[in-house]
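HUMAN: Can I see a protein plus its fold?

ASSISTANT:
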Amino acid sequence: MWLGACTSSVGTWMQKLAQSWLVLQLSNSPFMLGLDAFLGEIPIFLFSLVGGVVADRMDRRTLLIVGQVIQMSCAFTLATLFALDVVRVWHILCLSFIVGFAQAFGGPAYAALLPTLVKPADLPNAIAMNSIQFNLARVIGPMLGGLALTYFGAVWCFTLNGLSFLAVIASLAVVTTRFVPCHTGESILASMKHGISFIRRQGGMEALIVLAFCMTALGIPLVVFLPVFARDVFRQGPNIYTLFLSISGAGSVCGALLVAVLGYHKRKGLFALAGLILFGIAMTGFAASKNLTLSCVLLFVAGGALIAVFALVTSLVQLITTDAVRGRVMSVYNVAFRGGVPIGSLLTGALVPIFTAPLVLGVAGVLMVFLGLYFLLVHRRIAAL
């Protein structure tokens, strides 16, 4: 499963690099860049709760395979449009929305499937390993995508991404899980309420979900708007954007490895908040930096801190949750974690043309530091986990 997901993630990052750069080129608008990210993530915010109910009622592997086929079809469609030289920005935006819709159902299913493949004691390391594959792909994907975009064109990026989904489909066909779907006869709405009531009974779970939303709303725009920094701040082309993505991905791999080393450490909440504060500081420094070497160092630290926080918070949520409601709980977490991305990206995309990218992302970094300090010193439920 790890190998299949890693292969697909490499393809996804190849497409993301080409897609972001070409949206900026076709539209010459940072707002369109934010809108593309918004449309890719907003279906997750809107439909993940339903996706969580479905993930608890049917075979999660089947649900994931259907989602992979839809995403593969979108990649091949985009490749065809580019090959025929008829692509427009609205084509990309529509396909981003369809991919997001597929992920709204696939995300909770994948998050709920992972714990059924390992023993509970190994779950934190499994989540860290999953973060490693995703962020290893953030290093390899942009490097391959940058080469493919520069020397062969965007069609290759999209085609190779489409082919990469075959690896996930193959891995899903061979893995076995412990989960047996159980349909109690209650309505979808009642099932969603059951999942939400479970979250409200778990003490620190609500705080973790709020933290996940704020973290992505404020932090993920750093990655989304790297093309703007490459083009407008450093006056460079896709080669520097590729470098930024790879550096951020390399930092993320190191952050995930650190979480894996910590393993079953009992103070995950405290480490998560410390990482959040470090991420805010690094993000603010990157936004203010005009030196390429210093920016790369700060981006490396920011990437490591962000993924460490993500892995720790996800581990805490998974460890608190029982398997019977895991799909629904992870769908709520998915709504919070992924829901922050479209809102943060759209808001940042609207503010950047007015106040510039360094100022907007610098303020977001400062807010991240205050968020970490609040949960560390005032609302201490997360620090106690």
Q: What stands out?
A: The CA atoms of residues 374 and 380 lie 8 Å apart. The longest helix spans residues 326-355. The radius of gyration is 20 Å.
